[in-house]
Amino acid sequence: MKKLHLIAAAVLVLGVAAVAYASGEAAHGAEAAHHGLNWKDFLFRVVNFVLVFGVIAKLAGKKIVGFFRGRTQQIENQLSDLDARKADAAKRLADIEASISNLAAEKAAIEQEYRRQGEALRDSIVAAAEAKAVQIKAQAATAAEAEARVAVQQIRAELAESVVSAAAAMLEKKLSAKDQEKLVDEYLTKVVFN
């Protein structure tokens, strides 16, 4: 492989030298036609170039080859990195497109879930209010019954007082002092013997 590079470089040098010589020949015109090709000068130039090229290749050849190999490796790494980035970007794009296409369905699902939660909250509030209303009605009925009992007892007490007062007034009118003593004695006798 190294020899192939060396041969290609030599051919390139000879070709460049021939072109340079031919262009110089055309510039001198007729004078160059009389003199012909100066092969000795041409040979010295080629040898000089080959020697300079050989010295450079010997001294810096490995570094130059290493530089180009390193650069080649770096370019290959960059290309593989770019391919990986491209694949990652394509995957992310596909994910984003999928999420965008599912956005309407997700929106509908979220709205439905919120609607369901709202209805459940409404139902729980209504049930709690109905239970509280039943409790308040029961408390009102109990309070009304208690007030009615108190009122009935109060009316009975007032009625009993008025009956006792009326009976006492009537007895005072009808009974004399002697009858009163007789009644007291009878009741005392009953109480003592019982």
UniProtKB/TrEMBL annotation:
Keywords assigned: ATP synthesis, Cell membrane, CF(0), Coiled coil, Hydrogen ion transport, Ion transport, Membrane, Signal, Transmembrane, Transmembrane helix, Transport
GO terms of molecular function: proton-transporting ATP synthase activity, rotational mechanism; proton-transporting ATPase activity, rotational mechanism
Membrane-traversing stretches: 42-61
GO CC terms, sorted: endomembrane system; plasma membrane; proton-transporting ATP synthase complex
Lineage top rank: taxon: Bacteria
Subcellular location: Cell membrane; Endomembrane system
Membrane topology field: Single-pass membrane protein
Coiled coil (UniProt feature): 72-113
Signal peptide: 1-22
Summary of subunit composition and partner proteins: F-type ATPases have 2 components, F(1) - the catalytic core - and F(0) - the membrane proton channel. F(1) has five subunits: alpha(3), beta(3), gamma(1), delta(1), epsilon(1). F(0) has three main subunits: a(1), b(2) and c(10-14). The alpha and beta chains form an alternating ring which encloses part of the gamma chain. F(1) is attached to F(0) by a central stalk formed by the gamma and epsilon chains, while a peripheral stalk is formed by the delta and b chains.
Record function comment: Component of the F(0) channel, it forms part of the peripheral stalk, linking F(1) to F(0). The b'-subunit is a diverged and duplicated form of b found in plants and photosynthetic bacteria.
Family label: Belongs to the ATPase B chain family.
Protein name: ATP synthase subunit b
Gene source species: Solidesulfovibrio fructosivorans JJ]
Gene name of the encoded protein: atpF
